[in-house]
Amino acid sequence: MGVTSHDSIPSLPASLLTGQKALVTGANSGIGRATAIKMGQVGADVVVNYVEDEEAAKEVVSEIEDFGGRAYAHRADVANEDEVVTMLEAMVDRFQTIDILVANAGIQRDAPFENMTISEWQRVLDVNLTGQFLCAREAIKEFVRRGVVPGTSNSAGKIICISSVHQLIPWAGRANYTVSKSGVQMLMETLAQEFSSRKIRVNAVAPGAIRTPMNRPAWETPEAEASLVEMIPYGRVGDPEEIATAAALLASDLLDYVVGTTLYVDGGMKLFPEFLHGG
Ligand code: BGC
């Protein structure tokens, strides 16, 4: 076993989210894909949102169906108000309601600040922040309309915002991305404050370096991975399944008293690891 390996993570109870309906945005790849599959594995019916690569989204659906789950794929750009409204209407139509939103869809368009175009700035904010606003707004309307359904969940609905360690850690060359993620933190906390009395739980997962297509260059070669691991006190890159597990737990009644919290799943990346040997 190399320094970057880890044993497989234990399974969650198979009935953790039984009878609940989950929407996972950006579920055709990376963290979203793993989260959609995890939600299906623990009993939720799942809407697999994607904006491109329909094939990949359909594979996620088949994987969920293969172990007896219910799922379908829905194409929508989370930054487009009409498309988000239609997606939620379709979900209520097919699955009757929504219990869990995992607002995951996110992109990076890195550029040195002085060269960053308005479209690189705007698109990242549109997808990463406005996308979460639109999906959360439409989900909350349904949570409030429906209220708590005894026997399904203690709460009227759960939102898990997928943020990043970069809601906290500044990151040169990614001003658009860091600003979008710090916006996600305040959006999450404000919604948690605003809707907790209506039994809606809003929380976030902030991943560190996770092995996904989005950051492939950072772990693709042994040299790149070794230099990435220097920034991670726990000594390894994370797996998408570890974020999926955190999201499923936050969505479940096991963590019913957790409200307005960010769960960092980052191997300690936000702990200023350079201070281990300096300062
Ligand atoms: C970014 C990744 C990066 C990680 C840790 C994530 O939010 O999307 O590209 O590797 O943060 O820096």
Word description of this protein:
The chain has eight helices and seven strands, in the order E-H-E-H-E-H-E-H-E-H-E-H-H-H-E. It has helices at residues 30-41, 54-66, 81-95, 118-146, 175-195, 216-219, 222-229, 240-251, and strands at 21-24, 45-50, 71-75, 100-103, 157-162, 200-207, 262-265. Strand 5, helix 5 and strand 6 form a beta-alpha-beta unit. A seven-stranded parallel beta sheet has the order 3-2-1-4-5-6-7, with helices on both faces. With 279 residues, the chain is α/β, with parallel strands linked by helices. Helix 4 (118-146) packs parallel to helix 5. The protein has a single domain, classed as 3-Layer(aba) Sandwich (Rossmann fold), CATH 3.40.50.720.
What's the short version?
With 279 residues, this protein is of the alpha/beta class.
Main attributes?
279 residues, alpha/beta, Rossmann fold, 7-stranded parallel beta sheet, binds beta-D-glucopyranose
Structural class: alpha/beta
CATH class: Alpha Beta
Distance between the termini: 33 Å
Bound molecules: beta-D-glucopyranose
Q: Average pLDDT across residues?
A: 96
Can you tell me the CATH topology?
A: Rossmann fold
Shape: globular
Radius of gyration: 18 Å
Q: H/E element string?
A: EHEHEHEHEHEHHHE
Task: Please give the largest β-sheet.
Answer: 7 strands, parallel
Strand content: 5-15%
Lateral strand order in the biggest sheet = 3-2-1-4-5-6-7
Helix content: 40-55%
